[in-house]
Amino acid sequence: MAERRPSQPPDDIELVLRDLGRQLDWPAEPDLLPGVRERLASAPRRGPFVSRLRPSTKAVRLGWATAALVVIVALVLSVSDSTRSTVADRLGLPGVSISADPTATLSPGGELSIGEIATLDDAALRSGDGLILPPEAVLGAPDAIYVLDQDGTVQVSYVYLPRPNLPEVGGTGVGLLISQFDGSTNSSFIQKQLGPETTIELVEVGQQSGFWLTGGPHLFVYERPDGAIREETIRLAANVLLWEQDGKTLRIETTLDRNAAIRIAEAMDAGR
Amino acid sequence: MRRYQDLAVRTAWVVTGSAGEAEDAAQEAFVKAYLALGRFRAGAPFRPWLLQIVVNEARNRRKSAGRRANLVLRAAAQRGNDSEASPEAATLAGERQQALLEAVNHLREEERLVVACRYFLGLSEAETAETLRCPRGTVKSRLSRALGRLRNELSVTLDGREQTLAGTSDLEQTADG
Does B140 contact chain A (CB < 8 Å)? Predict the structure, then answer.
């Protein structure tokens, strides 16, 4: 049998190519997010809604209605009479008359400082590595979705308006708030910031450990994936269920009791 | 987004060969992807959809620059990076990789991109097809042709280098003697 000469290319050139791929002078991984944000901010004001504009699509009409509501409310709240025409021009709406509407209200949850309103696709893109969905079969679709990008951590929140099975939380106009963000918690972290009136109970959510906080907790402490310790404010001053799922920390804020909150938590779906 | 940014930049880099242009193309691709989210089919794989936009952006930049991408090895790889190997073996390994990369750089553009997607970026055949906007059959045939060319070119190049090395070695022995 003829011996293979040393210079002969290997039979499995695919393996050699894979190895070559590891030796390439790849560019260092950059942080693209600030640049993308800047470009989006300076891009013509057309968002995901625009490309969905098909009059026959119910979701599109809903998206436009939501977008229109946000724009109108933002204008009503932030624009003085003298500058309204200028703003309308800059929005590409010359000749549109904008007047104050005292009955206008914010989008559901808009006063909770939980970021910008977003579509589900937008939230999935910005959260990057997996979005855990609330159980539609149990709760119905959320009334609004928000994305908050802060200190390099993306938090996605689902807001539910009050309804018979979701009583309003103390004058907030919100029945239930579910949030997810990168990070982890443990009881020593959490206990550090709890006031004497707050109780903490260790619970089980599926196969995971979780924490049930009652008595008006105001904030809790968690550890980000990079090891930084951060405080997170409780938005509704309600009962809070905290647990970890698929590398995320999830939080439910509600007036529901512990078992009801756990049932919702156990139905969350890491499907996106 | 952070989950995909490294892959997006690498994909743009195999098209442009420039780190700066790759970053710019990837950034613009994320912006376009965001604005085009409404056209993304629910349930479709997200990664190749994004990379398709990345490749398009990178191609536009390369065309504007009017040059061909030329991929390069890390300095350590050029020297040979097997610490347990003898210096000669390490040099030979480094030269072999350099020769293979040169052969890849000499491939036709469409073949080079298929090779890069499959072996350098680790995409599946289906992902490669969607990223490059061509049928899977085309990916298969381009890959087959590319591997054939690489085997041939590598064999010729390494034979030539080995003969050169052998000649140098004979001269050294003569001089020693």
Answer: no
Q: How far apart are CA B21 and CA A50, in angstroms?
A: 29
Please state, in angstroms and rounded to a whole number, the distance separating the CA atoms of residues B89 and B99: 15
Q: Is there a contact between B100 and A31 if contact means CB atoms under 8 Å apart? A: no
A19, exposed or middle or buried, with CB in 10 Å at 0-12, 13-18, 19+? middle
Please, are residues A238 and A271 in contact by the beta-carbon 8 Å criterion? no
- Cross-chain Cβ contact B150/A17 below 8 Å: yes
Asked if A20's CB is within 8 angstroms of B1's CB, the reply is no
Position of tokens 């030796």?
A23
Strands A208-214 and A239-245: antiparallel
Interface of A with B in 110-149 (CB under 8 A): 119, 121-122, 125-126, 128-129
Least confident of A169-178, A208-217, A257-266, B152-161: B152-161
**pLDDT value of position A9:** 44
Judge: A24–B100 Cβ closer than 8 Å, yes or no.
no
| Any B CB within 8 A of A151 CB | no
Q: Which of A25-29, A58-62, A93-97 has the lowest mean pLDDT?
A: A93-97
10 Å CB burial of residue B32 (0-12, 13-18, 19+) is middle
- Cross-chain residue pair B100–A20, CB shorter than 8 Å: yes
Q: What is the pTM of this model?
A: 0.47
A113, with CB counted inside 10 A (0-12, 13-18, 19+), is exposed
Contacts of B2 in chain A (CB under 8 A): 31, 33, 128-129
Mean pLDDT of chain B: 80
Q: How confident is the model at residue B8 (pLDDT cuts 50, 70, 90)?
A: very high
Beta-sheet pairing, A248-254 with A176-182: antiparallel
Kindly state the average pLDDT of the residues A113-129.
81
Of A17, A18, A29, the CB nearest to B9: A29
pLDDT at A12: 75
Residue B40 touches chain A, beta carbons under 8 Å: yes
Q: Are B33 and A49 within 8 A, CB to CB?
A: no
